[in-house]
Design goal:
Helices cover 30% and strands 29% of the residues. It is of the alpha+beta class. A hairpin with a 5-residue loop joins strand 23 and strand 24. Helix 2 packs across helix 9. The longest helix has 20 residues. The chain is globular. It binds glycyl-adenosine-5'-phosphate. The site of glycyl-adenosine-5'-phosphate has 19 residues, from strand 11, strand 14, strand 17 and helix 9.
Length: 444
Amino acid sequence: MDELVALCKRRGFIFQSNEIYGGLQGLYDYGPLGVELKNNLKSSWWTSMVYDRDDVEGLDASILTHPDVLKFSGHEDTFTDPLVDCKSCGLRFREDQVPEHCKAEDLTEPREFNLMFKTNVGPVDDGSSYAYLRPETAQQIFTNFKNVVDSTSRTLPFGIAQIGKAFRNEITPRNFIFRVREFEQMELEFFVQPGTDDKWHKEWVKSRQEWWIAQGIHPSKITVLNITGDDLAHYSKSTVDLMYEFPHGLEELEGIANRTDFDLGSHSKNQKDLNIKSKTIENTSSNTKLAIQDLENKKFIVPYVIEPSAGVDRGILAILNEAFKIEKLDDGKERLVLSFKPHLAPIKAAIIPLKKNNNDLVSTAIQLKNNLQKLRLGRVVVENTGNIGKNYRKHDEIGTPICITIDFDTLEKNIVTIRNRDTMAQEKLDISKVPDYFKNLLLS
Ligand code: GAP
């Protein structure tokens, strides 16, 4: 983990947030390469969830959330972690994360601590008008259910996907970007006919494992964990966690829950008319019926929901960990390489003119960069430092799949040299064939 954290800072992937003022715990900023990696991961998720399917719509809802949403969802009452104080060191910890140096006799009895951030809305700060920063993106998908159904004429089964920030006032943020206070989630709420929910749940567990493997996670590093008993969330009939071997241990990367009709049932008006199966609290505040009409018998039903919910930041940590390699070279030296899948690599290709002061080499490099950039397959850069060896090393470390050298053969014979990050093999190619080579690399 330490090596990964150091690399992330040195190369501009991830920085401690607010560092020049001493930092704020549990917050991180994504730098020039981190933002590209993150955007690529989110785009891969969105493509697979929304574009590659015909049964999912997208949403981008507000972060500030009406207190009633989080009252009826159960968050106000149950979104808590047990907190203990250590009377010896004066610090507070989550009950299951007390460090070894605190003795049991120094700890207070645990008390429940709500993890939601509350903030004032509007110009009056008397506590009467407040909202929460959403603790999960899911709830605003449920509150928009009727808007999406009415505007798209969707019938069951169908899903609503959303990527966005979530906030949790974690008692003990830890392990770099694994447990933080501000993070991003990629969540799908997939609405199905009651009775078909178990089948859909199984399908989503399988499909989500396949997706992570396609992002470069080795199948042997994923463990499928069935959550049982008290560990099940109050809304869940069954939950499967995809656990990943993070540098600090085996922990949750994504949860796939069968949330039944709890959420739509909880946020709906006229609950009594809807034959809701799960235990909800009476809702007299909602002005909307969150149900869908069965086209055959015209009765309203409250769909069951299958929810694959993944953390973007945990995904980034897993992908960085998976890609990070230190290789011994034939000459006894070592090289550090991030072997990202090409579609996730922050920079897709680096174009390197052999000499930085040669106008013909440099302008040919810029022209090739512009041609590749126009393909809209991700970021391409020109490296005009004149030191090919250093550039190869840098681009190995930041995971650029190919480096393309422009030399005098390019000017005389239109030939470039393409160097592969993983094999370090070099091949010659006519410059006119580079766009197809590049497309093949990124689209195959
Ligand atoms: N809507 C369901 C839900 O939010 P969750 O298991 O609490 O379920 C889903 O969170 C995912 O969000 C987790 O699998 C994890 O990847 C990510 N996540 C949760 N809390 C996090 C935190 N404090 N820091 C980073 N990621 C977090």
